[in-house]
Amino acid sequence: MSIYSRTFWQAAGERAIKTAAQSAILVIGADQFDALAVSWGEVGGFALGGLILSLLTSVGSDALTSQAGPSLTNSERLD
Questions:
Q1: Spatial separation of the C-alpha atoms in residues 75 and 43, rounded to whole Å
Q2: Mind listing the pLDDT tens digit for each residue in 14-53?
Q3: What does pTM read for this prediction?
Q4: Which of 7, 8, 43, 65 is 20 to 30 Å from the Cα of 58, by its Cα?
Q5: CA gap 79, 63 in Å, rounded
């Protein structure tokens, strides 16, 4: 699998969106959610940071392995 394929970027994008959502929830605090007290700029910054780190990890993983997917392990295969 190459980083130049659509399938790779679909899988990497899905992972990145999940990581961004997890990062946002971490900043918000799932048990103390108050939409008026949240610094939405900070939430967005952490979410964007998580998204970028996830994409970089997927690209780096592809460069390190010859497996069929954006994963360091063989747990996700895109054939």
A1: 30
A2: 999 999 999 998 888 865 767 778 888 999 999 999 999 9
A3: 0.73
A4: 43
A5: 17
